[in-house]
Amino acid sequence: MKNLLVTGGCGFIGSNFIRFLFEESDFKGRVINVDKLTYAGNPESLADVAERAGARYAFVHGDICDSVAMARVFDEYGVDAICHFAAESHVDRSIVKPDDFIETNIHGTYVLLQLARERMDRIKLFHHVSTDEVFGSLGETGFFTEETAYQPNSPYSASKAASDHLVRAYHHTYGLPVTISNCSNNYGPYQFPEKLIPLIILNAIEGKPLPVYGDGLNVRDWLFVRDHNTAVWEIMQRGRRGQTYNIGGRNEMKNIEVVGMICDLVEELAPPLPGGKKRRELITFVKDRPGHDRRYAIDCAKLEKELGWKPAESFATGLRKTVQWHLENATWISRVRSGEYQRWIEAHYGK
Ligand code: NAD
Ligand code: DAU
């Protein structure tokens, strides 16, 4: 892999992946990061990495659905491997307005697959980053394995399921060398503050209400973002082509427990609230998400057995690092929330 195309590299997981590649892995090639810079993409997340990487890093402001622009990227940069993160990723947004999810997640993935297929002589790998949400919702017991039948419940997860099927079909029909990973909920630095953990951290710091959907007993299986990315990199290097790998931290938590832990950490690490108010008093139960999946839990035995992968962080250590990161990166946060970075993007890359 000399010229690795990373899509969505200005988003939460993609930017952490590129940071990991340059700063911690044995990757020796060049990264070409294609990102449309939607509300969720922020090139500032990689400004320091880009500077240090020099000619080994190229950023292209582009849309993966634009087949002409993407063909140019494949050929100008001699792309020989793809790690595909770009997507619309927020379930609540997909419920309100599914359009962009269908376009980017399904059509965009198709465009990339087709371009890769037309250049099979040099493409070594198409790695597709996907989600455990494609499997639907679990009852009180059991785990998602790679054999679990797909049963996506939201427009977001249905669009990701469709993209997974396309990737698998391009391997089965055309022999494109692919790998797919289905990961559980991520948290960590540079996550857009619409998702549960960064939203609750910031509201808790500022003394705002902490919205918990429904009864707060829905279960998610949390994984620190760096651990997701070490798994993706292992799969890309040593995973069997044509295979799917589940990634997860064996860390099931009820939402209300996660929110409680964040309250306690913020209480410990941030200045106290005026009037001695405690963060736990800010918890506010709100209307449930329509079609809200009850429980996700990943069985990642295949990844552990075949590739020897293990997460480095426990939820306690990862969450503490994440709260600390939010306290130390007020500028990134205020720029993302104020829309200032959107104006920066327009100044650098046009509207
Ligand atoms: P994110 O929303 O933070 O980032 C998505 C990035 O994709 C942004 O930089 C955005 O600008 C870019 N993008 C969107 N549409 C594009 C387009 N048409 N062309 C080019 N770029 C485009 O998402 P994330 O949380 O970093 O998720 C990354 C991937 O990982 C997604 O495929 C998601 O389904 C998957 N995933 C996420 C999680 C999670 O917990 N966040 C868990 C498992 C899998
Ligand atoms: O499981 C992997 C998926 O995890 C990824 O594929 C998605 O891209 C990612 O967004 C995430 O989806 P979720 O819907 O699980 O994440 P979210 O952070 O939106 O919500 C986590 C849980 O918290 C979920 O049960 C809904 C609940 N929630 C969320 C928000 C934003 C609340 O109770 N209050 C909130 O304000």
**What's the helix-strand series?**
EHEHEHEHHEHEEHEEEHEEHEHHHH
* β-sheet strand percentage: 15-25%
Give the low-confidence spans. none
Oligomer: single chain
Radius of gyration: 20 Å
What's the total number of strands? 13
Structural class: alpha/beta
| CATH architecture level-2 label of the domain at 3-186 and 224-249 and 296-312 and 339-349 | 3-Layer(aba) Sandwich
Spatial arrangement of strands, main beta sheet: 3-2-1-4-5-6-11
The gross shape turns out to be: globular
Spatial gap, N to C terminus: 33 Å
Helical coverage, percent range: 40-55%
CATH class descriptor of the domain at 3-186 and 224-249 and 296-312 and 339-349 = Alpha Beta
The CATH homologous superfamily of the domain at 3-186 and 224-249 and 296-312 and 339-349 is termed NAD(P)-binding Rossmann-like Domain
What molecules are bound to this protein? nicotinamide-adenine-dinucleotide, 2'deoxy-thymidine-5'-diphospho-alpha-D-glucose
Major sheet attributes: 7 strands, parallel
Give the count of helical stretches.
13
Overall pLDDT? 97
CATH topology label of the domain at 3-186 and 224-249 and 296-312 and 339-349: Rossmann fold
